[in-house]
Amino acid sequence: MSCDRFFSRDLSYLYIKTARASHPSESPSLGVFRPNPLPLSQNLSRLSKKLNMQSSVLGFPRIGKNRELKKATEAYWSGKIKQEELLATAKAIRAEHWKLQKAQGVDIVASNDFSFYDHVMDHSFMFNAIPTRYQNLGLSPLDVYFAMGRGRQEATVDVPSQEMVKWFDSNYHFMRPEVSDSTDFKLNSTKPVDEFNEAKAAGINTRPVLLGPLTFLHLAKATKDSKVKPIALLSKLVPVYVELIGKLVAAGAEWIQVDEPILVLDLPTEILEGFKPAYEAIGKAGAKIMLATYFGALKNNVEVLKGLPVAGIHADLVRSPQNLDAVLPILSKEQVFSAGVVSGRNIWKTNFQKAIALVEKAVAALGKERVIVASSSSILHIPHTLESETQIKPEIKRWFAFATEKCAELAVIAKAVKEGPAAVRAELDANAADVKARAESPITNVKAVRDRQAAVTPAMHERAAPFETRIAAQQEILKLPLFPTTTIGSFPQTKEIRVTRNKFTKGLITEADYQTFIEKEIKSVVDFQEEVGLDVLVHGEPERNDMVQYFGEQMEGFVFTLNGWVQSYGSRCVRPPIIVGDVSRPAPMTVKESKYAQSVTKKPMKGMLTAPITILRWSFPRDDVSDSVQAQQIALALRDEVQDLEAAGIRVIQCDEPALREGLPLRTEDWAEYLKWAIDAFRLMTAGVKNETQIHSHFCYSDFNDIFDSILRLDADVISIENSKSDMKLNNVLSQYTSCIGPGLFDIHSPRVPPVTEFKERIDALLKHIPKERLWINPDCGLKTRAWPETKADLENMVAATRQAREQYA
Ligand code: MET
Ligand SMILES: [Zn+2]
């Protein structure tokens, strides 16, 4: 049921202003709205006197110390609280975060970094880039906004959400803006102004942050019915920025942070050429613009920054210390440099000595008045505070700094440069001791692990024989029918499973009782698969909380947080494991369950493992050794697991690598190197088995078209790959795949059950691209989020269609 009728419509947090409702006196025209009395240069010199080694945070996590925002938002969605309560919670969270940052000593604090769902979507909404499907649904503005983020299904309304896309190479996801020739860009909400005023009322003068117009349009796509290139709309969009910045200036904002993270990507000329006209217009709006880039190296893109009428430039010196040498020479005499020396992306304590050296280099070139000490990016990507992590051993905890602690670090670094090291001697000494302790800790350098890495040979990455030989040997043993059917691993994680696992974790039931429970679950999932008539069975993964955490908890080198949540998308948060040391596997991790599952069926049981890149990408990685070294350590640990499964009689082993695609570097010139070590890690994990053992791999969550040749290079015997949602768009590359392949036949995210005819049509379509002896039949991904009734119906229909196909194509 819709709860809209309960909401008062005059709450203006996400205030939609219709064209007619706007006051004539408020309607701005380009460049004349609230003209700034001083020319920019004068503004800057006035400002320069005030600036002296200030510290700055580009944006703070929004979800709240204990995920208060998530809880309130979900309560609102389910009708448990009203809009007023949600807005009040959000307001309290913002105030708390501003005060917290100030209390830690941060000078420049952002506003408008808050979002109910996603900051990119906030801009779509604010600029009136609201696709027509969300309009005229009779929803409140806030519900229109949420419908864009999560879709809306009820009796009279059925709209899907906007497309969700990964935010650069982070684990945050944004909603992709949609624009067309008819998008009527205008100021649709006053969110940045409202939040600026809100902070001001709380006594805090903030620097509002906006996503820049080039980034907004580069990340946007044209609506289905429009052929427009989003960048062609730049001249229509920029006046809205000018109007908005004018309003912020009128409210008292002096500086505005405008984020253009796309400057670390390979960019087409038309995007690069847009910077000059856009910022020439924006520069006249009366504010001092801090143009912020982050997440990587600017490289040649630095050229477009030269001569832009902005008051400052921010660059990420954590991801790319070279940015310092790139940016310093292009700054004009008055421009300020914001040095991003404290990571917004990882949880490691900043090495003060290194950070201070970078800042001092900037100061030597520019003077203290023109340097700001900043977080490398928004610190959105880090958990709120280390304070709650009471269970992490103190000797490891001292290596970490979460969001709150990063704020304090910024203040110390700024003070060290401003007043000299003596002013913060105790902090510097403590930091140096922590850094040293980590470097010297036995867990960061385990001889056995390093020796094993040194002994890795090229031959360890090669299967004994080529695919054709292997598949024949496998078929001898497995005797699978044409079009073998299987699933991807997990079966519905019922409430009973989760409750029992929790009880076990809390010590409320014995290990023996838990084991009995898990075996009962496995047995019933195996029986179910036999009844449905699947060919290669799985044990269902009832013992796993999460496909990465489950393995991390059983390996050396990982630690886990109690409350280290970070926003993944919307209200969804994840709690990534932290890789703290060299990784190894003290004992088998999955053998007991797989062996038991195999013991209760004559059909082949598929062992189920998460592969190295996915474990690495879905954790916080170390920053003291490279990703490739970490991936190799994980691969060696998993290699042992693969061989133990084989020794235990498991003939088919699936190694899930859904994050392979998302690990791709931001710049294409870096792809080859990444793919080399990532593929090597997979091969190191899997290549030690006999020809008779069948290696499967699984891919989902991304569009794999552009790395399909790399998937081939994994040399797996069978791959399953998400396909159904993408309108079977993989079909064209499928024919290139030379091993067996199971493109997903149904979308596991939807409760909809495709009829047998639809399954059969999909199989027919796939057979146009894939030779029949190589086609496998399976869903898109694991079934753990589904309920049993639809799972049963889906699989029954899938098997029925397969049987028809077998008759037809035998
Ligand atoms: C995100 S991929 C998930 C694969 C895993 N084996 C599962 O079935 O849940
Ligand atoms: Zn999957």
TrEMBL record:
Pfam family name, one: Meth_synt_2
Residues the entry annotates as binding 5-methyltetrahydropteroyltri-L-glutamate: 70, 171, 572-573, 618
Signal peptide: none
Keyword Methyltransferase: yes
Enzyme active site: 749
Enzyme's top EC category: transferase
Name listed for the protein in its UniProt record: 5-methyltetrahydropteroyltriglutamate--homocysteine S-methyltransferase
Native source species: Schizosaccharomyces japonicus (strain yFS275 / FY16936) (Fission yeast)
Encoding gene, per UniProt annotation: met26
